[in-house]
Structures are given as C-alpha cells and as structure tokens.
C-alpha cells in the first residue's frame, strides 16, 4: 500500500460477506505521521467528495487553522450508476450485505491499516443522494460503531422512514441531514422524475421529536454539489471541531 501523504490513493479490500473485492480510496493528510492517532471520515460516492466537494483541500485548510482534529479520509467510490442502485440504495439487492461489509469488515481493515483512534465518536460517515441513505443505514445498523452520519439529499421513501421507527438505539446517533428546496421536482441521474423534498421533510418530522442529536437544514438549491459543497465546512466543524 502507498502511504504517501497529501494524495488520494486506492486499495482493494476483500469482503467475505459480499464475496467480492471493493475499491477503496483513502487520503492521508500532508503532515501524516504514525506518531499520532486519527479520526476517520468515511465517504460513500467518494470520488464525488474528492472531485466536486474537494473535501481533502477543505480538511487541510481547516486543520492548518487549528479548527478541526487530525483525520484521515477513506471512501468507497461507485463504478457505475447501476452499481449504486444495487449496493447503496436502501431497496437494492446487495444493500444489506454492503452495510454489513462497512460495519464489520471495512472498519476492521481501516483500524488495522491506519493509526486510528478506534472510538465511535472518532468516525464520521458521509454520503449524498443514495450514498446519503446508505450512510444513515450503516449508522442505524451499527450505532455503537458509527453513531455520526451526514446525508446530503438522501433518497427517502416510506420503507426507509420505517427503519427509524421503533429503533431503540436512536439515542446513540448524531445525524446531519440536508435537502435542497429545489428538489421537489427534478430529474435523477437515471432520468426519472423525482420529489426528494417531501419525503425528506417527512423523515425530519419524525426525527426532530426523537431522542437523538439531529441537525436538519433545507438549503437553497437542487440535487447537485453546488448546493452541498458549501455545507461541508460546517459539517467538518460540527463533528471534528478541535
């Protein structure tokens, strides 16, 4: 493996539960040294967080200014739009196995490969759209391992909301949830007409009265990184403020 700081690298991680290998991206900060322990930011749709969110540049600026704690960034990219529907979508055929892979196998690989703090509140999950739904799914399934999750404009339907209802470990969670005000009528990457705003408001109506830490924001804009990117600084400070 390549441990050169300041660059995005790739590795393959084998999953027994899924029976296949997954590409994983990782970024070690410019001043990385194994003399320190690090928080872990785990992104889903990771190539978009690097390309459009420029999350590594934002991290370096905030860290240089002493505003956030030491962290490494690890992520799972999507090889195709169809793949996202099968693995990240809460209705996808491989979704549950993928959740188990992250909750058991990926975190074991991360903690055995990098000098991490290995504590629940030293980990943050992040995703947008279907990957945002996936981030919340992982936290719901493994609240003691991944209590902290961000979802930009997640896909939400009635069945997804039901996952939260009656969940006894909601009090363990610290969720950050956003939706764009222009997402009431837009065309998805698959070419389908969709309304994300209404079901996300319904999820918020449920979660705001539950015993968990929960931030919800309706943003000016649509289902695009132009809407999401300005929120990243707030989110990194929210979870990693020094």
Automatic annotation (TrEMBL):
The keyword Hydrolase applies. Keywords: Hydrolase. This is Alpha/beta hydrolase. Pfam families: Esterase. Gene3D superfamilies: alpha/beta hydrolase. InterPro entries: AB_hydrolase_fold (IPR029058), Esterase-like (IPR000801), Mycobacterial_A85_antigen (IPR050583). GO terms for molecular function: hydrolase activity. The keyword Hydrolase applies.
């Amino acid at each position: 493996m390549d441990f050169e700081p300041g660059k995005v690298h790739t590795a393959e991680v084998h999953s027994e539960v899924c029976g296949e290998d997954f590409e994983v991206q990782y970024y070690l900060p410019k001043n990385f040294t194994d003399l320190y322990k690090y928080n872990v930011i785990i992104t889903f749709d990771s190539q978009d967080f690097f390309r459009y969110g420029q999350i590594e540049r934002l991290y370096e600026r905030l860290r240089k200014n002493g505003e956030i704690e030491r962290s490494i960034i690890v992520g799972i990219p999507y090889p195709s739009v169809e793949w996202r529907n099968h693995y990240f979508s809460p209705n996808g055929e491989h979704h549950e196995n993928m959740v188990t892979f992250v909750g058991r196998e990926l975190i074991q690989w991360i903690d055995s490969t990098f000098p991490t703090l290995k504590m629940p509140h030293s980990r943050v999950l992040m995703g947008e759209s279907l990957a945002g739904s996936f981030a919340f799914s992982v936290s719901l399934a493994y609240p003691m391992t991944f209590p902290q999750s961000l979802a930009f404009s997640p896909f939400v339907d009635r069945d997804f909301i039901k996952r939260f209802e009656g969940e006894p470990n909601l009090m363990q969670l610290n969720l950050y949830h956003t939706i764009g005000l222009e997402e009431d009528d837009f065309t998805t990457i698959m070419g389908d007409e969709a309304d994300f705003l209404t079901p996300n408001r319904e999820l918020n109506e449920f979660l705001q009265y539950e015993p968990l830490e929960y931030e919800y924001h309706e943003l000016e804009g649509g289902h695009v990184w132009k809407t999401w990117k300005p929120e990243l600084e707030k989110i990194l400070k929210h979870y990693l403020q020094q």
